[in-house]
Amino acid sequence: MPRVKRGTHRRQSRKKVLDRAKGFFLTKSKLHRAAQEAVEKALRYAYVGRRRKKREFR
Fold it and tell me: What one-character DSSP code corresponds to residue 58?
């Protein structure tokens, strides 16, 4: 099997993470690993927040 070169795919996936992390504080918007963690946490908070919003309307 040929060797897989991940250049394009890696760039796309990292760019997606960094685009989602725009506006985050300091390195959380610059470095991939910090941005990845911050984005995951933000998505978790967003998920919980959507459920809480429904709770408040009831």
Answer: -
The full length of the chain comes to 58
- Does the predicted TM-score (pTM) go above 0.90? no
Structure tokens at 42: 């933000």
- Distance between CA atoms of 9 and 14, rounded to whole angstroms? 9
Instruction: Give the integer Cα–Cα distance in Å for 54 and 58.
Output: 7
How large is the average pLDDT for residues 14-35? 97
Amino acid at 49: G
Task: Please identify which residue in the block is written with the tokens 């897989």.
Answer: 4
Q: Which two tokens stand for residue 22?
A: 């725009």
The C-alpha atoms of residue 16 and residue 18 are separated, in whole angstroms, by 6
